[in-house]
């Protein structure tokens, strides 16, 4: 079980089985299961959702392409 980070407001840190692999706010790894590579279409969609990090692969979505 991950402990809630003090500087991140995402509640997935405190869950025993979070629904995502990486936190979309801070990018911390929440699950050990790995996924293949994401494509830019998924990343574009997550940017529109205002996520800072991809919750599947952990890539920083705020950096320039």
Note the run of SSEs as H and E: H
Which percent range fits the helix content? 10-25%
- Name the overall outline: globular
Overall number of domains:
1
The tally of strands reads: 0
Radius of gyration computed on alpha carbons = 12 Å
What portion of the residues fall into strands of 2 or more residues?
under 5%
Q: Cα distance, first to last residue? A: 33 Å
Mean pLDDT: 83
Query: For the report, how would you describe the main beta sheet?
Result: none
Specify the number of helices.
1
Briefly note the structural class of the backbone: little secondary structure
Task: Characterise this structure.
- The structure is a single chain.
- The protein has one domain (1-65).
- The N and C termini lie far apart (33 Å).
- It has one helix spanning 40-48.
- The longest helix is centred in the C-terminal third of the chain and has 9 residues, at 40-48.
- It has one helix and no strands.
- With 65 residues, the protein is mostly loops.
- The model has no long low-confidence stretch (mean pLDDT 83).
How is this fold's topology laid out?
Layout: H1 40-48
List its traits.
little secondary structure
Question: What's a concise summary of this model?
Answer:
With 65 residues, this protein is largely without helices or strands. 14% of the residues lie in helices and 0% in strands.
């Amino acid at each position: 079980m991950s402990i809630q980070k003090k500087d991140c407001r995402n509640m997935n840190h405190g869950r025993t089985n979070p629904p995502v692999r990486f936190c979309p706010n801070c990018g911390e790894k929440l699950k050990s299961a790995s996924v293949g590579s994401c494509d830019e279409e998924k990343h574009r969609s997550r940017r529109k959702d205002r996520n800072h990090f991809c919750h599947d692969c952990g890539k920083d979505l705020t950096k320039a392409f």
